[in-house]
Amino acid sequence: MYDYFNGKLVVKAPTHVILDVGGIGYHIHISLTTYSQIKDQEQCKLYISFQVREDAQTLYGFATEGERQLFNHLISVSGIGPNTGRMMLSSITPEEIQSAIINGQVQIIQKIKGIGPKSAQRVILELQDKLKKQGPDTLIPLPLAKQSVPEEALTALVMLGFGKPQAEKVLNSLAASDAEQTVEQLIKAALKRL
Asked: What's the CA gap between 91 and 46, in Å, rounded?
């Protein structure tokens, strides 16, 4: 529903902020990782994960798109709710979590408060393949510079759920055969091969 909020930071605390966006103050829960990145800013942009429950509608904000993506992966695991996901991202960096999941390091995940051995194993079991498919650089922020046609097509295919290495290979072969294709043409051609 919401992708990001960009506004003035009215209140900053290690667990939440109040962000004034167009005269409306949004109470947004954040991780310590995000807090460390925005604590010196007056204005900021937070990527939002909007969580709806029977008794609450809660906004979780992240300084980077990669951290939000990892948070959404974590809360997709049964037994890991938004508060536990935020606790995980506050305890160790998103890069450390991703590396621990990909490498099957149960003991690192288990050290996080509120995560027992069974939960740690479940997180690794359910997310290991997803994170391996996305590649190790998914937590690196996307460059703001204009992407080339193949890069834009690759981004779209990864967002559609295709593995980055596989999509990259197909796109490279398509771009080599016809360098004048538009993004749409390249994506359509790649979809036929994937």
From this structure: 20
